[in-house]
Amino acid sequence: MSIYSPNGKLDLTIPVKKGARQHTPIRDVRISYEADWQRLHWRSLQTCYRNSSFFEYYEDDFAPFFESKREFLIDHNLALLELCLKILKLQPSYGVTESYQRVPAELNDLRDAFSPKNSQTPAQTPYFQVFEDKHGFLPDLSIVDLIFNQGPQSKQYL
Predict the structure, then answer these.
(1) What three-state secondary structure class fits 13?
(2) Is residue 103 part of a domain?
(3) Tell me: the pLDDT tens digits for 57-74?
């Protein structure tokens, strides 16, 4: 997750346990709790968004993600996705597969469209951000930036 800090863009990553194999299926990637990353992430969110318009409104929804411990990264990510969709009042149809599947040619495969490796990101219309006066508008941040800054208007922005 990339968020807007007083010093600019801040990347918050979840450490994972290293396996014997380098190509571990995403469903088998386990979260490491050797470091207290949950406390660090939550304090970073509080520091960066405490003065945003909607942080206090959604704070209790996000806090459990930094208190409870899930074993697998996919479970953590899917739960966060479900929370964000609920906040945005969106009900897209999606599912998970047991293995990597090719997308039929007639469908648009967007799995790599939002990868950090893909530097071609579409232009983004600016919205108010807490530290905008210091660094200007920062695009390509986590959905939490939009939610904490725009609240119920986030859906219309998207």
Answers:
(1) coil
(2) no
(3) 999 999 999 999 999 999
